[in-house]
Specification:
single chain; Arc Repressor Mutant, subunit A; Tetracycline Repressor, domain 2; about 65% helix; DNA-binding transcription factor activity; HTH_TetR; HTH-type_TetR-like_transc_reg; DNA-binding; transcription
């Protein structure tokens, strides 16, 4: 696309695509506005009109990643069916698998999502729709009697930490599952144990 043919929104999206390709190749450390501009075929000055710093571009890429995660989580939980006694485990396993899959498909973008530019003042990115999906899922399971409502406080942090922790270990090659087990098996195990810990008590 010639430089003169970019519309305002088109250039921003083009820079995001180039930025995603850069972090996909080498993680967030690989990214620069100058490199994204070069890939998009525009001047650095034009790119800086949309992203005035490297951190601004990283933040925008993190938002793209969290939106994809939100959509993946919503799709995953929408397809879960089961009886009350096992619906919580099935749902949390679906959440964990979707989380893991998003990270495995785009590890560079996943690491970008959790950089300091994404949510510098938060333990987890509570301002992103993906986290809201998780909170809504847990509230729904508790309302249906599939989770103990008395244990609901902080459950979102527990589930997110479990999913993120295992995913990070897998991405960093820190989990030895042996030759016959896939990462999804480990996620099912972890999320199954989490579901059991939140199950209704007598």
């Amino acid at each position: 696309m010639a430089r003169s043919s970019f519309h305002h929104g088109d250039l921003r999206n083009a820079l995001l695509r180039e930025g995603e390709a850069l972090v996909g190749d080498g993680g967030p450390e690989r990214l620069s506005v100058r490199e994204a501009a070069r890939g998009a075929g525009v001047s650095s000055a034009a790119a800086y009109k949309h992203f005035d710093s490297r951190e601004a571009l990283l933040r925008a890429l993190a938002e793209v990643g969290f939106e994809r995660l939100r959509l993946a989580l919503e799709e995953a939980v929408a397809g879960v069916r089961g009886r009350r006694r096992d619906i919580a485990e099935a749902t949390l396993r679906a959440v964990g698998r979707a989380y893991l899959q998003v990270a495995l498909e785009r590890p560079g973008l996943f690491r970008t999502m959790f950089g300091r530019w994404s949510a510098p003042d938060a333990v987890v990115p509570v301002d992103h729709g993906a986290y809201e999906v998780l909170q809504r899922v847990l509230d729904d399971l508790a309302a249906r009697g599939a989770l103990d409502a008395r244990l609901l406080e902080g459950a979102d942090l527990v589930v997110w930490s479990a999913a993120h922790g295992l995913t990070s270990l897998v991405l960093d090659g820190r989990v030895d599952l042996g030759p016959d087990r896939e990462p999804a098996w480990a996620m099912d195990l972890v999320m199954g144990r989490v579901a059991s810990s939140l199950a209704p008590r007598p």
